[in-house]
Specification:
This protein has about 120 residues and is of the alpha/beta class. It contains four helices and five strands; from the N terminus they run βαβααβαββ. It has a five-stranded mixed β-sheet with strand order 2-1-3-4-5. The radius of gyration is 13 Å and the shape is globular.
Length: about 120
């Protein structure tokens, strides 16, 4: 069994496109999903440390117990939890990736954007 990890929005519209993309991207069987409304903003701004800690607690399980092959931070169009523009969400996603990289420098970390057509694209 092989796993990767998605730190994704709770929005149901983005779940399947992200899972399908990540299974191919990391060549894995399963995707552990850590979901919060607007997780890219949560990790970028670090305003709610309880939620940040909760995300990292769940990420730790995915990495240690499932041997996650890669971690993705996801932003998407029409996000209720992070209603910022696409450009601002890109900045949030990149900052969130940096935050995760400080603890998991040995695991590939990617950013994803899900468009208004529910198409997934890797960003950097």
């Amino acid at each position: 069994m092989s796993f990767c990890t998605a730190i994704n929005c709770m929005d149901g519209r983005v779940q399947l496109p992200v899972i399908e993309f990540l299974k191919k991207r990391f060549n894995v069987n399963y995707v552990d999903v850590i979901s919060e409304p607007g997780p890219n903003r949560i990790l970028a701004e670090q305003n709610n440390l309880n939620v940040v800690e909760s995300i990292f607690d769940r990420l730790r399980i995915s990495v240690r117990q499932h041997g996650s092959a890669g971690i993705a931070v996801v932003g998407h169009h029409d996000c209720a939890g992070n209603p910022a523009s696409q450009q601002e969400q890109y900045r949030h996603t990149l900052a969130a990736m940096d935050c995760i990289r400080r603890q998991y420098s040995n695991i590939p970390i990617i950013g994803l954007w899900v468009s208004e057509n529910w198409e997934v694209r890797e960003i950097s």
